[in-house]
Design a protein that fits this description.
Order of helices and strands: HHHHHHH
Shape: globular
Number of helices: 7
Radius of gyration: 15 Å
Largest sheet: none
Distance between the termini: 18 Å
Helix content: 55-70%
Length: about 140
């Protein structure tokens, strides 16, 4: 796989627990700059971006949530996608590159013999208890 071994291991564990889609998203995002458009006030995420992590206080969970919301917005067309990114202060080109990299990782793993069921997108409860999200953030 064209990523660091520890990220590959993370994705394989995700496949075992049927959250490969989320972990492919997180792994793919590590190769690009963060999609969060900064307010220029240091490295920490802005309050709206931090809220995306819910009660987990994790940049990776915030990124996963933002990515899933962006995918939903993208289904409504390019104008809807652009409006979503503008209102949420997200970089559309970065999200698109992350999506391409995620799909490449998924295709590599499916071609290597991992079942496609491992990569079914799941919805998570970001603001309350969710054992699958806990597993994703702990991997």
């Amino acid at each position: 796989m064209p990523i660091e071994p520890r990220l590959g291991k993370m994705i394989i564990y995700g496949c075992i627990f049927f959250c490969g889609d989320a972990l492919c998203t997180i792994a793919a995002s590590t190769t690009f700059p963060e999609p969060f458009v900064s307010n220029g006030m240091g490295r920490s995420l802005s309050w709206p971006h931090r809220r995306l992590a819910g009660c987990r206080h994790s940049d990776h969970v915030a990124l996963l949530h933002a990515f899933q919301l962006w995918e939903d917005a993208r289904m409504g067309g390019e104008q809807n996608e652009s409006y979503f990114c503008e209102t949420k202060s997200l970089s559309m080109p970065t999200l698109r590159m992350t999506s391409e990299a995620k799909n490449q990782l998924r295709d590599i793993l499916v071609n290597a013999g991992f079942p496609e069921e491992c990569f079914v997108a799941q919805s998570f409860n970001y603001s309350g208890p969710d054992s699958k999200l806990d597993m994703v953030s702990g991997t």
